[in-house]
């Protein structure tokens, strides 16, 4: 019997999962209305399959845990926690709407994307590795490299004759050699950064998950920037993906700045400082607002939207939705 999860409404499962529509089917993928990913449930891999079995205004997510034999109540509870976090189903978007109510551009975009959630990574370590991989390369290339790494070093799980892979644990990557990581397409320098971080987490020197308990996001950024190969850009994306700190906006990211400029200053380029100044009006929801802007720029819209473009004329429209699986920075694999 599947787990039944009840997201905080409004919630659009298909819209929120479309970002995974181009993912590697053996790692993580959304297709034909079903989201699949291998998670570590109480230390062992399990394939979760998630479907929306509710109504448009009353979503209910059915979660199957495979293979199903011998799943304990504690494991079901853990899987519920992980899927809820991964898909951000308990975010209270009403608070987001209140925060942006005086911004007509963002209010219009949020209506067009009603129910969209920004996903999270399963662990902070996963967010760190993904962010290092993406440094200074295209998101398409980064996804290919990351998928190779997961398939090579992640623990495999066979379900119904098909093999799926969990994201490599710190111990898995710490046991790799620099040459093995380079064979996945990583540069020598990035491989060194990942090996350093994996080794520190594996031997207990670095406890990334404990950083979630630190309230001051700037303090977390400072601590992450002490790691080799981690600058502010990488640290901010780790906070967004791995800790769901939606008060953070990675304004140094060219894609984020382009999306903000497209909505507020069409045809112009803006600086990181200008992007941060614009984002101040979104309060504690800067990161989610940036995610909405990126989605809008990529032509994403909710069910029933007339497709006229976000913001009712305040944003460039007519962009292809074929790129929706590659929203830079907020997602992975």
Question: Can you put this structure into words, describing what you see?
Answer:
The longest helix has 15 residues, at 139-153. The chain has 3 domains: 3-90, DNA-3-methyladenine glycosylase AlkA, N-terminal domain (TATA-Binding Protein, 2-Layer Sandwich); 103-119 and 245-333, no CATH class; 124-243, Orthogonal Bundle (Endonuclease III, domain 1), CATH 1.10.340. Strand 2 and strand 3 form a beta hairpin. The model is unreliable at 306-326 (pLDDT under 50). The strands form 2 sheets. It has a 5-stranded antiparallel β-sheet with strand order 1-5-4-3-2. A two-stranded antiparallel ribbon has the order 6-7. The protein has helices at residues 13-17, 73-86, 93-99, 104-112, 124-133, 139-153, 170-174, 178-182, 188-202, 217-224, 232-243, 254-264, 272-279, 286-297, and strands at 3-5, 28-31, 34-41, 44-52, 61-66, 156-159, 162-165. The chain starts with a strand and ends in a 36-residue tail after the last helix. The protein is built from 14 helices and 7 strands. It is an alpha+beta fold and 333 residues long. Helices cover 41% and strands 11% of the residues.
């Amino acid at each position: 019997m599947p787990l039944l999860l009840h997201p905080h409404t409004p919630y659009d499962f298909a819209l929120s999962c479309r970002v995974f529509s181009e993912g590697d089917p053996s790692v993580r993928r959304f297709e034909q209305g079903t989201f699949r990913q291998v998670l570590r449930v109480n230390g062992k891999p399990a394939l979760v399959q998630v479907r929306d079995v509710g109504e448009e205004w009353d979503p209910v997510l059915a979660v199957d845990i495979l293979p199903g034999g011998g799943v304990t109540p504690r494991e079901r509870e853990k899987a519920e926690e992980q899927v809820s976090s991964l898909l951000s189903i308990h975010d209270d978007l009403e608070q987001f709407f209140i925060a942006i109510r005086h911004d007509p551009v963002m209010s219009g975009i949020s209506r067009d994307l009603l129910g969209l959630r920004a996903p999270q990574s399963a662990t902070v370590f996963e967010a760190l590795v993904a962010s290092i991989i993406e440094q200074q390369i295209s998101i398409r290339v980064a996804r290919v490299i990351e998928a190779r790494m997961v398939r090579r070093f992640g623990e495999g799980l066979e379900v119904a004759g098909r093999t799926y892979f969990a994201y490599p644990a710190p111990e898995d990557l710490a046991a790799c050699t620099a040459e093995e990581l380079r064979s996945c397409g990583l540069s020598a320098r990035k491989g060194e950064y990942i090996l350093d971080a994996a080794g520190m987490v594996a031997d207990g020197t670095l406890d990334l998950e404990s950083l979630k308990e630190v309230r001051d996001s700037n303090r977390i950024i400072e601590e992450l920037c002490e790691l080799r190969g981690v600058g502010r850009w990488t640290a901010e994306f780790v906070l967004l993906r791995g800790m769901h700190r939606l008060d953070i906006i990675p304004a140094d990211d060219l894609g984020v700045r382009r999306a903000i400029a497209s909505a507020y200053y069409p045809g112009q380029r803006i600086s990181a400082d200008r992007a941060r100044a614009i984002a101040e009006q979104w309060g504690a929801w800067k990161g989610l607002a940036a995610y909405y802007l990126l989605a809008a720029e990529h032509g994403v819209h909710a069910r029933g939207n007339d497709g006229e473009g976000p913001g009712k004329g305040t944003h460039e429209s007519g962009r292809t939705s074929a790129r929706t699986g590659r929203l830079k920075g907020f997602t992975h694999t």
